[in-house]
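Priority: medium. Attachment 1 of 2:
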């Protein structure tokens, strides 16, 4: 008996959209139906590569009955409009981060999805990085003891494909979401320094998040560092765990030894899209929800407010977003 497959359309066939198209064409529970890009040449090239229809107007793709879900891989400023249209057409939606340009737009998407009973998932791909899952298990087993600090570095040269948001909403937002995921709670306050040394929006930021007890999250993000670095270090009373998002390596060090955990590298995007398709087939909430996307944007905006005013911003994120 053949497995049920979810029909997907990809809107935006730039670098990341092409990756979505590739993975969707390979998974057992997905079927790539069509692709779309405002640049007709890009759409045509991707469509021909995977032998699927292509178009340059998103509504042409959204009208296709076989398209049950869409991946929105366009520029951030278009996310809210395209997501709203997709929901109106009765499509489940995976939106690349950030979910929208503003938290207000993200809240509107959440409301619309709930009103139409459509699933919305936000592309926080690091949640599906096998190394982060292993690190969370280490923390949950109490191998590190009481946690003091989680320190994330997400630095490297400016990706020219990003031109409509700064480094906080484009890059640091990943690690803001990761802190929420690791600590399983919302931060109570945020303090940040940020600025621009050569870009329209901020191109460096240092963000400190306060959590319950003695836990602190610290995020360093910039588009200035010569080489790409994606790391996370968690300090506990008994040991320190360090992981690399790119190599998926984890080292755990205590007073006696430093041990490297064995692992097999696997592509996070495969896990992410496979998971979303499974959620659609089983009608269950995805691991990364529209609410997660909203919360990460609210914290990002608070960090930018802090950097602008030089003040600690108190957060109250347990209120209803509706």
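Attachment 2 of 2:
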């Amino acid at each position: 008996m053949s497995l049920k497959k979810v029909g997907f359309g990809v809107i935006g066939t730039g670098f990341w959209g092409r990756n979505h198209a590739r993975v969707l064409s390979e998974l057992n529970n997905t079927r790539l139906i069509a692709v779309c890009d405002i640049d007709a040449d890009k759409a045509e090239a991707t469509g021909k590569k995977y032998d699927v229809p292509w178009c340059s107007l998103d509504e042409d793709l959204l009208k296709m009955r076989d398209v049950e879900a869409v991946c929105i891989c366009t520029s951030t400023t278009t996310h809210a409009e395209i997501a709203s249209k997709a929901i109106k057409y009765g499509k489940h939606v995976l939106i690349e981060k950030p979910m929208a340009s503003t938290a207000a737009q993200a809240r509107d998407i959440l409301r619309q999805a709930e009103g139409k009973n459509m699933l919305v998932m936000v592309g926080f791909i690091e949640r599906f990085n096998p190394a982060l899952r292993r690190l969370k298990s280490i923390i949950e087993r109490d191998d590190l003891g009481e946690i003091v600090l989680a320190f994330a570095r997400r630095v490297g040269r400016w990706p020219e494909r990003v031109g409509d948001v700064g480094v906080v909403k484009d890059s640091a937002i990943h690690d803001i979401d990761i802190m929420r995921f690791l600590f399983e709670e919302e931060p109570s306050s945020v303090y940040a320094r940020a600025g621009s040394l050569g870009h329209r929006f901020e191109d460096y930021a240092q963000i400190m998040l306060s959590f319950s007890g003695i836990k602190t999250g610290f995020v360093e993000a910039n588009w200035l560092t010569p080489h790409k670095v994606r790391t996370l270090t968690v300090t506990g009373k008994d040991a320190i765990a360090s992981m690399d998002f790119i190599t998926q390596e984890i080292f755990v060090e205590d007073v006696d030894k430093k041990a490297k955990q064995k692992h097999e590298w696997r592509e996070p995007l495969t896990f992410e899209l496979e998971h979303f398709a499974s959620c659609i087939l089983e009608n269950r909430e995805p691991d990364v929800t529209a609410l997660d996307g909203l919360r990460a944007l609210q914290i990002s905006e608070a960090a930018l407010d802090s950097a602008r005013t030089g003040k600690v911003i108190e957060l109250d994120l347990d209120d209803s977003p509706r």
